[in-house]
Amino acid sequence: MTADQFASTRPWVKNPLKSKSDVAAFLRNVLDPLAGHTSPGGARIHLSHTGTHFDDVAAQLEGFSRPIWALASLLAGGGSYDGTHRWVRGFASGTNPTHPEFWGNMRDRDQRMVECSAIGYSLAVAREQLWDPLDEQSKQHLGAWLGGMNDKEMPNTNWLWFRVFANLGLSRVGSPKFDAARMKADLDHLDTFYIGDGWSRDGPEGVVQLDYYSSSFAIQVAQLVYAKIMEKDDPVRAEEYRNRGRKFALDFIHYFDQEGNAIPFGRSMVYRCAMSAFWSALSFSLPEPPAPLTWGQLKGLQLRNIRAWMKTPGAWAADGTLTLGYCYPNMNMLESYNSGGSVYWACKAFICLALPDSHPYWTSEEEPYPSHLVGTTWAVEKPLHILTNVGGHTYLLSSGQQCSYPVKQSAAKYGKFAYSSAFGYSVPVASLTLEEHAIDSALALSEDNGEIWKVRRETKEARIEGGKWLRSMWYPWSGVEVETWLVPPSPSAPLWHLRIHRIRSSRKLLTAEGGWAIYGQREDERALEPESPNGGYGTLENGPEARALSKAGVSGIVDLSSPTSRTGQAMRTDANSNLIVPRAVMPTLMGKNDGNGQDDWLVTAVFGLPNVEGVEGPRDGWQAEWLKRPEIPTDIAALMTR
């Protein structure tokens, strides 16, 4: 069965996902398969036998709690779900210390704390359906269990929001376990993460991590939902959070393409459509859209993203549950905190269902991506990103971010030069060959003839210069420094971006630089072969350039160094390294540095043109664009000739 045939068996195959009732129907299709994985007492949902750094009871609690983001929103907005009783029963069982399905009391830095966020939200917005049916003893148990985190140590990150929401829920149901002082102290501290222009760090000063946790996964969504629930009780803070959301929206919109796909960047990509949950929370919170956006545009941004995931076959297992992966099941990309239940953080995207039927979000017609933003490049100072959708390709250039604590494959998730909504990014599957490293959008260096390769992980001295390009330093070994400029596309060469590297090394090095990883199969699904003179899909290796054509579009890379010093190779990366396609080809440039301590300048032009949604293969006119070459900006060229 092909992927398309498999997709045609999904229960939502004819759902256009246009109206509130459509979204509610799809959500019920998402929740229904969980019944078969739910424990008799309802408190645990077991979805996989994979390991995490926390215990399996907490993993099964994840499976129980995370769908509540969507269920509670559906109920709060006037909807219903026949399986609601499973979660009501689970509240009673999971918080009862004498019940065999008891979740266990919280300890310091306990994963159970994370799950309190969804539970607190559900009590705050859907009390009548989820709290009121509980008997008095069960209410006492649930209150005591949630309040049990108030005297525990928590990580100094977005986790503090989880305790805020636990207390928010406790306050809304009148529990004596509500701790107003604790909630205020947490909020005051979380506000120290704010750095302006709508952006917050995921931690204290010194943290340079501004990924989806700073937006849709946690901080922005939490701020906006809090603002809505507490608009009368905490009006000053609520309006401040709304103002942050208004500012942030004008940056965040550039992370989405016209088809609804978000640019994969950073960790926890397994949460999928939670990447767009900001648009749901913004619509839930604001009385009016942030100018110049409209209700129809906000609706489109959210629904197109959910729709894209609804139509991604590999995101769904045969029984209708979400898989562990991104566009297909993929254990290589996971973090150590990803259980089978983790993926249901995606349910945050359904917060829009909490809006009443009469809200202009639902009564407005869905509008396309704002036309005035098509064909633009946007520099965002706080995360050190330059975003562009010039040439029909939405991607970002990045320098200066790194995870502040150990995360699996953090160099791939934060350190690459570019991240694309169409081509995604790749993670290493092993550490011996370049094919295993999968160095798309990265420069890899080896000082031992290829035994060990290093890519950029910790970036120093990163900055956006004049809103035009990114400039940064990287020091892979003592005696080796790499300075990199990342230049977005120009009007004369809109399908290219430039990477210019100055390498000063006292060690002899091998160099390898990857372009975009692209779907690597022919029309008959066999591996791509060299291009035929008669056309068709295939690869090209021609001196200082390499290229790959497939049903996904065109990807290429060219060495513009003078004199040309590198050789192009269409490298087939190891299976399951790319987030979007399990079999990929990566145009690559291979070279050497003689280690004389002098400046060696590498100039790399990277070409990318994804296919149009619903139309396979490269777009018309790509050949003419391929023959164009981007020019080195005058200011950078002057540095090169000093």
TrEMBL record:
<dbReference type="Pfam" id="PF10022">
    <property type="entry name" value="DUF2264"/>
</dbReference>
<feature type="domain" description="DUF2264">
    <location>
        <begin position="377"/>
        <end position="637"/>
    </location>
</feature>
<dbReference type="InterPro" id="IPR049349">
    <property type="entry name" value="DUF2264_N"/>
</dbReference>
<dbReference type="InterPro" id="IPR016624">
    <property type="entry name" value="UCP014753"/>
</dbReference>
<protein>
    <recommendedName>
        <fullName>DUF2264 domain-containing protein</fullName>
    </recommendedName>
</protein>
<dbReference type="InterPro" id="IPR049237">
    <property type="entry name" value="DUF2264_C"/>
</dbReference>
<feature type="domain" description="DUF2264">
    <location>
        <begin position="20"/>
        <end position="369"/>
    </location>
</feature>
<dbReference type="Pfam" id="PF20938">
    <property type="entry name" value="DUF2264_C"/>
</dbReference>
<feature type="region of interest" description="Disordered">
    <location>
        <begin position="524"/>
        <end position="543"/>
    </location>
</feature>
